[in-house]
Amino acid sequence: MTEPVPVPVPLMRPSAVSSVPAGPGWSHGMKLDGWRAAVHRRGGQVLVHSRSGRDITRELPELRTVLMDLPDCVLDGEIVAAYADGRMDFGALARTPAWRASHGVGVVFTAFDILAFSDSPGRPAFDVRSRPLRERLLLLEQALAGRGVRWVPGLDSAAEAVQQARDLAHLGVEGVVSRRLDSPYSTRVSRAWVKWRTDGDPVDAKVIAVIGPVHRPWALRVLVNGGEAETSPRLDSVRAVEVARQLTGHVGARRQRDDGFEEHLVVGVVLAEVRPPVGRHGSLHFVRLRTDI
What we know:
The chain is of the alpha+beta class. The protein is built from five helices and 17 strands. Strands 11, 12, 13, 14, 15, 16 and 17 form a seven-stranded antiparallel sheet that branches. Strands 3, 4, 5, 6, 7 and 8 form a six-stranded mixed sheet that branches. Strands 1-10-9-2 form a four-stranded mixed sheet. β12 and β13 (227-230) form a beta hairpin. The chain is globular, with a radius of gyration of 20 Å. The two termini are 30 Å apart.
């Protein structure tokens, strides 16, 4: 029996925009702070892969029970780690299940699209990517009815979506993802999905070195827009320890800089999200390491 969609399946990526598109024909949902992932549920198996196609099923055992309760389907969504009060913690996704349990962090999969669907028990899922989003959303609601997987409801009003994103920013909502209701699910369709962030869109930068003590660095040196730059402001103690932990196994040679500080070169490909400077004297702001790639 063949799979209804390829494994891993290429996921659609929203284009960055400076404002949420207004007018009819759009569905606006909250942009959550987690790992983008696809869930393949088939027979007695569940497979979860990241946006890059990496198999992350075993890294998140907390999801197995709820995902096994799904009918045969393929879902696109976001894996989120959150505390009981709803605050999302992106870094907790890279921690162990034991650490999350001891710190009161739960893991949930929140779906926002369906790529394959089975309309009756025992019938294999069939590919629905060619159908318009408005139809896929109805199938998604049907697939998730009465089950533990959450889904992101869409809003018709751009203004309402922007206000909701701002109201929920303290919990980790990053902005709004808007999708055309008449669009199929295809990576070849341009700008059918767009994203607006409340604080501007970050970019990925290759980490070249950590500056300061390796166990508690105070900045990163990265390659961004064809040149090297250092992040600012200085990392606080909590973030410094977290960065050091995430870079375990990637830290190489130490060298002394002309300014008297030490830095350690980073081995391999490590990406960081950074927010480019705004204005003539702005600084390159570190957001986080990309542990989901």
